[in-house]
């Protein structure tokens, strides 16, 4: 339903939200989230451009979360990487359909609308504070896994 890149972005955001007291290097985040560091660096750049994370160079540099995990949603993160694809017009460009979608595409769009709403309703804070979830969600260097 979402791309691997979007999942990697969510892993990085969860990692940062779950340990917000310091900046984390791409290498540390990659290790904790099991994402290849080269790929993660590109994902973190995308998140930085979307103003979801900040990056700071230097000895104590690294990445930190810019948004409050209580208001940051899964949809915010996914939209920053690869927006949820809704179907507004016939993807086959069949003129006879006019402004209406065929049953197949109408139902596919309805399913995407449900996913979009679920992602909008789910905050990052909810993910990291779920009492029934395995914790931590990612491997943390200063916490026992």
Secondary structure elements and pairings:
Elements: H1 4-18, H2 26-33, H3 37-49, E1 53-56, E2 62-65, H4 74-81, H5 103-121, H6 124-129
Antiparallel strand pairs: 1-2
Helix pairs in contact: 1-2, 1-3, 1-4, 2-3, 4-5
Quick one: overall form? elongated
Low-confidence stretches: none
CATH class: Mainly Alpha
* Secondary-structure arrangement, i.e. CATH architecture: Orthogonal Bundle
Radius of gyration: 18 Å
> Helical amount among residues, as a percent range?
40-55%
At CATH level 3, the topology is Arc Repressor Mutant, subunit A
Identify the CATH homologous superfamily: Winged helix-like DNA-binding domain superfamily/Winged helix DNA-binding domain
Number of helices: 6
Could you give the order of strands across the largest sheet? Answer: 1-2
Largest sheet: 2 strands, antiparallel
* Element string (H = helix, E = strand): HHHEEHHH
SS elements, strand count: 2
Task: Please give the alpha-carbon distance between the first and last residues.
Answer: 28 Å
* Percentage of residues in strands: 5-15%
How many domains comprise the coordinates? 1
Assembly status:
single chain
Structural category is: mainly alpha
What number is the mean pLDDT? 88
């Amino acid at each position: 339903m979402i791309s691997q890149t979007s999942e990697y972005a969510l892993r990085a955001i969860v990692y940062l939200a779950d340990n917000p007291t310091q900046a984390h290097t791409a290498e540390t985040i990659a290790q904790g989230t099991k994402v290849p560091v080269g790929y993660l660096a590109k994902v973190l750049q995308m998140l930085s451009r979307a103003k979801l994370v900040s990056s700071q160079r230097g000895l104590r540099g690294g990445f930190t979360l810019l948004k409050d995990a209580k208001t940051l949603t899964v949809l915010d993160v996914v939209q920053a990487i690869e927006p949820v694809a809704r179907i507004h017009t016939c993807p086959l460009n069949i003129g006879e359909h006019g402004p209406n979608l065929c049953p197949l595409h109408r139902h596919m769009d309805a399913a995407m609308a449900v996913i979009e709403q679920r992602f909008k309703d789910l905050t990052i804070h909810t993910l990291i504070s779920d009492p029934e979830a395995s914790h931590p969600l990612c491997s943390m260097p200063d916490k026992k896994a």
